[in-house]
Design a protein that fits this description.
By secondary structure, this protein is mainly α. Helix content is about 75%, strand content about 0%.
Length: about 475
Amino acid sequence: MLFNSYIFIFLFFPLTLIGYYGLNHAKMYKAALAFLAAMSMWFYGYNSIYYLAVLIISILANYCLSACMVRTSQKRLKQTFLGIGIFLNIGILFYFKYYDFFITNLNSAFQTNLPLLRLILPLGISFYTFQQLSYVIDSYKGECEDYSFLEYAAYVSFFPQLIAGPIVYHSELIPQLRDHGSRKLDFENLSRGIYAFSLGLAKKVLIADTFSKIVVIGYDYIAELNTPSVILVMVCYSLQIYFDFSGYCDMAYGMSYMLGIKLPFNFNSPYKAMSISDFWDRWHMTLTRFFTRYVYIPLGGNRCSKARNYLNILIVFLVSGLWHGANWTFIIWGLLHGILSVLERLFHDAPQKLPCFLRTGLTFLFVTFAWSLFRADSLHDAGMLWSQLFQGGFGPIYQPITDKFADLVEMNFLYKAGLGGIMTRYPWIPVTTFTLVILTACFTMKNTQEKAAQMKLTNRKILVVVILMLWSIVSLSEISEFLYFNF
């Protein structure tokens, strides 16, 4: 089920709110938690019972292993359970996500013909696997309480963050699920949640999905793009993934607020970053902290020689790239970020002498260039795009792109408003103006979580919410998945 769908907005989420708060009001706290877990299972299994079966088996296995570690005092037995837990989680992820990639490269390298499994990748498996992996490791360290199975199942399956994060630690969510005080309907939280949800929905439907139309054409017809068209497509994808993921985070944050739960920040205006390290402190923040806590620090972090520290950084970014997808494009993308992170540390003083706006601009240029590799279907396609960038020549924006943008309902409205003449003579103006306006917003506006936390309900805020919700719902005729569902 998608957040940006009629069934979710008009049926699933209202039922969840009514049932959850209704049972809590009746002081049926365990029933309310069971209801929330059951609704989360329905949310996840809506499109595929196969996805749900994988999730349930994973929850059962990890809970049993963690419970065994909590209940035993023998170190060797704990280590055995930990090893099984790590092997189980990484093994499941490898089987579904990386097996075919591994076999394909093995066949290519050794001229073998091993069969591929061609499995359907369960939605969000990378997210809930990492979340449970953190729980297993924390259980080994003795940092987990003896949670009930219901509490654990509700924690893992909590639908606002199940499919695309944030990756939440047990200590952040389960205590909130246990707090009976937070289960009372709070109209201030409800209003803030609706506000955040409406902004997130608008980001996804009105901005990210609009840029998606341009990006799809660009990557389908790379060889026909000239230099200005390539630049536009690259920037549009940078904005698409920004507002797609930002929109998801806002909607997840807003829904959790409405349920009386606060999720950790996961997106903090990353294009305002002045370095790659700063970017990763702002983009997918909970993934960064997961890799820091469970990969970087165990490798030695920065408590070692500089050479080893740089190697640790490269390993973390390599794993991060591989986490995002089973393709060499993701691996090289991760390594590019890792290499630049190392270079920033090697030449730390030099960038500090540059003006802040220039450092921000250079960081954005690198991130956008790297995103083009992230989006490409193959290294060959990425190479073609870069070739067209430098050798495509100059001229008008690729016509199918301007035509696609002109077909938008909003553009038809502008035509009827009297701007048809200039838009017909200069078809590149609408798409480039829209892109520049949205790009400027990335560098100047506060993020939604800051706005929601500081929000005071006013008539203006109510009007904004109503307009954005109505506009977004009317635009839901073309429902699309969030990009991070694929990871």
